[in-house]
Amino acid sequence: MPVRIEIQDGPASALWMSTAVMxxxxxxxxxxxxxxxxxxxxxFDFRISVRNTGNEATLQPVGPGPxxxxxxxxxxxxxxxxxxxxxxxxxxxxxxxxSDLLLHDAAGSVLQLYSVLxxxxxxxxxxxxxxxxxxxxxxxxxxxxxxxxxTVGSGSTAWRPGQLVYTYAISPQxxxxxxxxxxIGFVPTREMLFLTWSEVSGAAFGVIDLAPGVAAxxxxxxxxxxxxxxxxxxPGGDLLVSVPATSxxxxxxxxxxxxxxxxxxxxxxxxxxxxxxxxxxxxxxxxVKATGFDAIRVTDANGSRTIDSPTPSLPAVAVNLWVDRSSxxxxxxxxxxxxxxxASNMNPPSAFIDRLAAAGxxxxxxDAIVDANWLAVTPPPGEHxxxxxxxxxTSGTLPADPRHRSGTALSLSEPQIAQxxxxxxx
Amino acid sequence: MKTFQFPVTVTNHSDTDVDSLWTVRALKRSFFKGxxxxxxxxxxTVELASFGLVxxxxxxxxxxxxxxxxxxxxLRLAAHSSQSVxxxxxxxxxxxxxxxxxxxxxxxxxxxxxxTGGVVIALSSVAGSxxxxxxxxxxxxxxxxxxxxxxxxxxxxxxxxxxxAMLDRQHGAGYLGVLLxxxxxxxxxxxxxxxxxxxxxxxxxxxxxxxxxxxxPGEQFFAAFPLDLSAAETGAGSLTLVAYDAKHDRTRLRVxxxxxxxxxx
Lengths: 426, 265
Prior knowledge:
The structure holds 2 protein chains of 2 kinds.
Chain A: E1 5-6, E2 21-27, E3 30-33, E4 37-38, E5 45-52, E6 68-69, E7 74-75, E8 77-78, E9 88-93, E10 99-104, E11 110-114, E12 120-125, E13 131-138, E14 141-148, E15 164-170, E16 178-186, E17 192-199, E18 202-209, H1 216-219, E19 220-233, E20 239-244, E21 252-255, E22 268-269, E23 272-273, E24 284-287, E25 296-300, E26 303-307, E27 317-324, E28 336-338, E29 351-353, E30 365-371, E31 384-393, E32 417-424
Parallel strand pairs in A: 4-32
Antiparallel strand pairs in A: 1-5, 2-3, 2-5, 5-30, 6-24, 7-16, 8-12, 9-10, 10-11, 12-13, 13-14, 14-15, 16-17, 17-18, 18-19, 19-20, 20-21, 22-23, 24-25, 25-26, 27-28, 27-29, 27-31, 31-32
Chain B: E1 3-12, E2 18-27, H1 36-39, E3 44-45, E4 48-56, E5 72-77, E6 81-91, E7 101-111, E8 116-126, E9 129-135, E10 144-153, E11 166-168, E12 173-182, E13 188-198, E14 204-205, E15 209-215, E16 220-228, E17 235-245, E18 248-260
Parallel strand pairs in B: 3-7, 11-18
Antiparallel strand pairs in B: 1-6, 2-5, 2-7, 4-6, 7-8, 8-9, 10-12, 12-16, 13-15, 13-17, 14-16, 17-18
């Protein structure tokens, strides 16, 4: 059984009196439980005990990515047959002496990608075979079209075979600094197009996310123009290093994970900014950890040192604390989530736990403390209310998205939800 | 050869039957270096010929020749029932009343429902006999300390300005930065620190997990967490960080904070 997050309910005769949802006071490192009758005007915390009863440890939502040396962009695959063999291309010379580019897709359909090819063009597949890249040289410039060769993604945002996914024109007429030549590759292990072209000042580059569902405005991850000579990608394709052509004193590091600012990331060591300058000689980068501090080893003629990755490590388990005083049918629409203090299931969680080990191992259970200082002032004396705790994994989704729970209902039949009833004292 | 028996009661509080696997191992005192209870035990170690586990019913007396000791013992615990597991030790040499001695054992339990448990038993010689006590080891708190007040900043790397426990809602979105240091005297290995809870009503925040392979005494690091105070309510709350490492238990570091609104003064 994979990861299964639980908060223990109360005994069968009183499910709503879970001892895993315990009011009390955190002082120093020690938590002192309180009775169910909470005096007013005192500060409270909640201790929520969470355990994993599955036989796999929780995964952090970022990583663990691959480690190893940084590498250059993946080259396009020439020829008319897809690298995965699913589709192939045809340059069709029609009777009017024009040539069209056709795609024979996996379903056997023939789709026209481009009509009336110019005299000079180049066709290639992406390394995955899911995209076709067409370079057209005309009017002194270069236009790059990217088409989906297969269905990519699902639902309304999916790319369909033959669909034009992206186009970009490098035109010396439009910009006096641009030169009409280009290099095209793909970010390793990612469906991201990597473009370089010439500028008067040196090489310019861009990274374009081709994944379906990415908003057009967010598709360009980095668009940069400067004198750059060498580009290196982390093994997982999450990071890009650009090394200037003439001097390696200003090496820039970019994150290719969303959210992306497009700006170079400041070099840091244990969170402190450090100089990006490196010595002469052969320069290499190696991903030694998937994320976080000291994740990248930089080696130059002076030796090696480690710097932080721009990709942070995120907690694997989130805990929400809800309070409901108005209903016997608990839902995220009627209950209030704390410490956010508003009813919404899209708020950030109330607390986090970094990870839970597999059942039977040390670390399979852990506590989360939720600061509940709001209790000191909110409910009137004598009022009865219900504290409902829920825990869920954050892996693979937004932290605010409650996993495992099918809807808005906060049902005690769900293993990851437990309740404790409380009364406010005088 | 003198033999001693020390029973432990095992209870299944659940509604279903479970299998329970027990193991025993002798521990060295260095395993608990710095623990005050262990430090108080006699320094000499009891010389043992053998030790092991046996399952007995409560108050059952056994002859040593009838007992077959095992390092692992499997039990079937019926729902809401108890059984007894005994640690049995055979002395290699007689206890000398003039030379206090001690021995440490870990009895560990794993149940088929995934739960784990156990007990540490300390044996010490008193007047030529052995007495047992179960040890609740004092948690080893992390020596990490928070330096100064957190700072608010637009970017997520080290802030060189002094922070304040008074956070201005007008700051809006940015990062809450915390400077931490190894306040201990030894190098910490495999340090983990994360933001557990930010108890400021209406504030939007994210947690991050910071992992460090090693942190020398006095060495600092900077942890930053995305924070948006735009919709925060003014008032008091706290920031709770959890830290642990290879030799220290989970420890909470709480920093008191107050949200103010500079435009409402």
